[in-house]
Design a protein that fits this description.
Helix 6 packs across helix 8. The chain is an alpha/beta fold and about 350 residues long. It is elongated, with a radius of gyration of 22 Å. Helices cover about 30% and strands about 15% of the residues. The protein folds into two domains: about 140 residues, NAD(P)-binding Rossmann-like Domain (Rossmann fold); about 180 residues, 3-Layer(aba) Sandwich (Rossmann fold), CATH 3.40.50.720.
């Protein structure tokens, strides 16, 4: 494969500043930087129901500049992609996404021969830091202490111990594993749930490993539940009223996966009834979360706007992933972080 015949399209602002266009062009590549981004609601729709994406709402229209850029692209570094991408980008051979979740690409490249690589694990550490922070926020009553400070009241409100408690991590992928590694230092018992579990399987990062069919039984043994599973058909509405009811009374719930894995009215009900001690979510079904959404008023719920990952050097690290794979792509060798055959 000859670099002089290939065009690289960068369509996300996250990576554009990090790209060394001069170096790539010196090696013979043509480099285009043309932003393309869809609304978060459209992205979520594609993830939740990719087969119906073309029948639900109008896709984001492309400008003449975008149409020209996609028609010329052999490689794409992006977060989003237009529907019917093979027709819009007939030369496209490889997409490097900037995130780990790629559910939306079902509706864009399903059934094509385009190679898809993701950035799995890139944000795992920062997200795990956020998870640990949220857990400690509840155990050490940081929010309550802040409210006392705001009222200038000196009152002792003691927290609880993370050591000796049990934490269930639902989804022991890159984020779940990074979370487990960090939590070890605090002394809880760790249980991990893996989709690919087989009887007798163990894992060095948790004290106990189970499969999805054992989830409800394990919930009754845990003080904290961290949801970091991938968003796919099997996990849609995974945490519903029955799931929350199976949890230990006064437990903590954390969600950094996808909003559609949780039935939000059931989460609110569990918080209002006191079944849950507290919850923290970094994702929601509707993003951005509307001002009138009842989640805002749910008691003991901490909300952040899909921002548990760290932006610092993120674009540089995605670009590093791309350049590591580039020579493998050029020579036809197996590439790293290729997404499996689910498309």
């Amino acid at each position: 494969m000859n670099a002089n015949d290939l065009t690289i399209l960068i369509s996300t602002f996250v990576v554009s500043p990090a790209v060394d266009a001069d170096d790539l062009e010196a090696r013979g590549f043509t480099v285009l930087s043309v932003p393309y981004e869809i609304e978060s609601t459209e992205r979520i729709t594609r993830e939740e129901d990719p087969a119906a994406a073309r029948r639900r709402g109008e896709p984001t229209p492309l400008t003449d500049e975008q149409l020209d850029a996609f028609s010329r692209a052999d490689m794409l570094i992006s977060f989003d992609a237009p529907l019917d991408l093979p027709a819009i980008a007939p030369n496209l051979k490889w997409i490097q996404t900037i995130g780990s979740g790629v559910g939306q690409y079902h509706a864009s490249i399903g059934g094509s021969n385009i190679v898809l690589t993701n950035a799995a694990g890139l944000a795992a550490g920062p997200i795990a830091d956020w998870i640990v922070g949220r857990i400690l926020e509840v155990h050490k009553r940081f929010i309550a202490h802040r409210s006392l400070q705001d009222k200038k009241e000196w009152q002792s409100w003691l927290g609880s111990d993370l050591a000796g408690s049990t934490v269930l991590i639902v989804g022991l992928g890159a984020i779940g594993r990074a979370t487990a590694k960090r939590l070890h230092a605090f002394g809880p018992r760790l249980i991990g749930v893996r989709r690919s579990y087989t009887e007798g399987m163990t894992d060095p990062d948790v004290d106990e490993l189970i499969g999805p069919d054992q989830l409800h039984d394990a919930l009754g043994r845990c003080d904290t539940v961290v949801l970091s599973a991938a968003g796919h058909g099997d996990t849609e509405d995974l945490f519903d009223a029955a799931t929350f009811d199976a949890m230990t009374d006064r437990s903590i719930f954390i969600n950094v996966a996808r909003g559609h894995l949780v039935v939000e009215p059931a989460l609110i009900a569990a918080l209002e009834s006191g079944k849950l001690r507290a919850a923290a979510i970094d994702v929601a079904r509707n993003e951005p979360l509307p001002p009138d959404d009842p989640l805002w008023d749910a008691p003991n719920l901490s909300i952040s706007p899909h921002s548990s990952a760290t932006a610092e050097r993120y674009g540089e690290r995605v670009y590093e992933m791309f350049t590591e794979n580039l020579p493998l792509f050029m020579t036809g060798e197996p590439m790293r972080r290729v997404v499996g055959e689910f498309l």
